[in-house]
Amino acid sequence: MSKDYYQILGISKGASEDEIKKAFRVLAHKYHPDKEGGDEAKFKEINEAYQVLGDAKKRAQYDQFGSAGPGFGGFGQGGFQGANFDMGDLGEMFGDMFGFGGGRGGRRQARGGDIEVNVTISFSEAAFGAEKTLELYKPVACSACSGTGIPPGSKMITCKTCSGQGRVRQMQRTILGSFEAVATCGACRGAGNIPEKECKDCGGAGVKREKTSMTVKIPAGIDHGETIRVQGGGEAGPHGAPSGNLYLHIRIQPDTRFERDGFDVYSNLEIGFADAALGTEKEIETLDGSLTVKIPAGVQAGEEIRLKHRGITRLQASGRGDHYVRVRIRTPRHLSRKSKQLLEELRDEGV
What are the boundaries of each domain within the chain? Predict the structure, then answer.
């Protein structure tokens, strides 16, 4: 029965050579049996399709006769006998997956490691932003060699391991059998040359672990549990490679005066019967300091008084949220004789 190789790779019949190769690499990564969730049968089927469609002559023959046509007999059932594998593509792909080299990628620099830090800030700092100085003990670029691992004045010599090519050939074993793959030279890391001497301060690594301080900016409006990424703030990479990132996990100290809901702030104000009935003015605490607020006559328990633009600065936007004052009416537990008399008179009036 003829197989639809285009359907197996998930491409159209008019797909270009690059599109075919890209589809094969994605599916091969996904279904490789050495990876979690891999599928050996599916992987072999994908590779079978690629060996045909990736070859212009075989593809033309397949387009005319299908997989059951001349030249394809027994290919699907007989494994991979006689298949002309593109070892460059497979070597590069397996190198990416299992880390034994870069078939055509040249020198690869290992980025420095990431660092994660918990940062605690106040309620006010979360509302308006702040700057924090962090003390970190991490790998930093060696000052003696400027992070290169090469001491000043040292000359470069040809790498003996790869004879200056930057790549070496290695025999690799896969489920498809053994094949020769091109890998990045480990001695020179693909550069083709190595320093005559290594920096004594860092042992040629280009990095040293030291205590360092850095100031980071906390944006206004940040919320509890959110994370800030400081690009390049992590560990320095070896031999001048890029630094990793610094991730700040924000923790906000609670403030007994305020509650937060998004960018709005809530607080409680307790007043007496008379103030609620007649209205009054009260001093309250806001994020901007003390503020006198007017309580309208006849205010009810649980009503909220809105103070516009007195809330938290909106993160990555303009303006601020609002401050809502929740009114609580205090009921006295002990009354004087005069107070009782006055209240009884009010009750008689239906108040």
Answer: 5-84, 115-252, 259-348
